[in-house]
Amino acid sequence: MAEKITAYRFDRLDQTLSQLNKENCLIIAGGTDVMVLHKSRRGVPPKFPKPIVFIDHLSELKRVYQNHKDLHIGSSCTYSELLEDPFIPLPLKNAIKTIAAPAIRNRGTLGGNICNASPAGDTLPLLYVYNAKLLLRSVNGDRVVAISDFIQGPRRVGRDHNEILAEIILPSVFEEGSHVVFEKVGNRNADAIAKVSFAGYIRINGARIDDVRFAFGAVGPTMVRSIDIEKKLLGHTIPLADADIAQVVADFDKIIKPIDDQRSTALYRKTVALNLLHYFLSTSQNHPT
Ligand SMILES: Cc1cc2nc3c(=O)[nH]c(=O)nc-3n(C[C@H](O)[C@H](O)[C@H](O)COP(=O)(O)OP(=O)(O)OC[C@H]3O[C@@H](n4cnc5c(N)ncnc54)[C@H](O)[C@@H]3O)c2cc1C
User: Fold this and answer.
1) Which of 46, 170, 212, 289 is deepest in the core (most CB within 10 A)?
2) How high is the pLDDT of residue 2?
């Protein structure tokens, strides 16, 4: 006979937080990562190490709204919901379209992609270049952390057991003048886990680079981003000189350290990652100002 498990599904977020404060539970949003992680053999229900609490239905976690120039995205919004939402920036929609197939996109959430902290999580490179901040809520109140501080390693995040990721905040996303791209390289255009992914952000004033950011996925334990390398390009004019592009590529060559696994080789991953960066930089003059 199947083992019994304790499962909670409260009507409100405050009730959920209060339970999480009393008891260490496994949070389930869409369950698309959790169910795979805890699956048993065929026909046998999954085995969960602790009580589970569902959050996919909580209206408090499903709001998308603009606050001044920032965009707030509820953590339990599914990918399909985000694809329909007029506030969601096009590059994020493009990234979402590469994730899995519609059935998974109907269940999987943005909050789940972040808290699962896979090195190949497809929304993560973009969230890094958007400088995303995460609003964590518990019975003790709210705290806001940068995504790069929250994600600490594969499947490792800085979340206390009584906290829920409530909102993803994209600061200044409604500010004019930035150009953002996302590229994913996998075996197919969608329904494939990334071998490499890349997000680039550039803001050009006249011909001068005011801001530039890069993040690479699936080439390290977490997203690879270097503010020190980005800073070197500030104030340069576009089109960038070949020597400047070569220098940035050489700098990333030193810090991108992929691995061989069933999806790809380290050499392929590194070559493609650097090519994507090179392409983004050498077409910088085509990015609208
Ligand atoms: C067939 C298949 C294909 C897939 N393809 C892709 C793909 O192409 N690209 C990709 O990036 N991913 C892919 N995934 C992985 C998965 O769908 C995504 O990572 C998805 O975003 C997870 O969201 P979820 O709501 O289902 O998370 P869940 O499985 O519910 O949760 C994932 C983790 O996050 C925690 N969690 C969830 N929400 C919160 C919250 N608000 N606060 C605190 N903790 C929370 C959970 O406890 C768990 O540890 C695929 C999965 C499957 C099964």
Assistant:
1) 212
2) 66
> What spacing in Å lies between the alpha carbon of 153 and ligand 1's midpoint?
16
- In this prediction, the residues of the chain whose per-residue pLDDT falls under 50 are none
* Pocket-forming residues, ligand 1, beta carbon under 6 Å: 26-34, 36, 55, 75, 99-100, 104, 107-109, 111-113, 115-116, 121-122, 159, 164-165, 193
Residue of the nearest CA to atom 52 in ligand 1?
A: 32
Distance 28 CA to ligand 1 centre (A): 9
Q: Which domains does the chain have, with CATH numbers?
A: 7-170 (3.30.465.10), 178-286 (3.30.390.50)
How high is the pLDDT of residue 174? 85
Q: pLDDT digits over 100-134, tens only?
A: 999 999 999 999 999 999 999 999 999 999 999 99
Contacts (Cβ under 8 Å, ≥6 apart) of 16: 8, 10, 53, 55, 58, 164
Considering Cα of 256, then 257, then 260, then 261, what sign does the dihedral take? negative
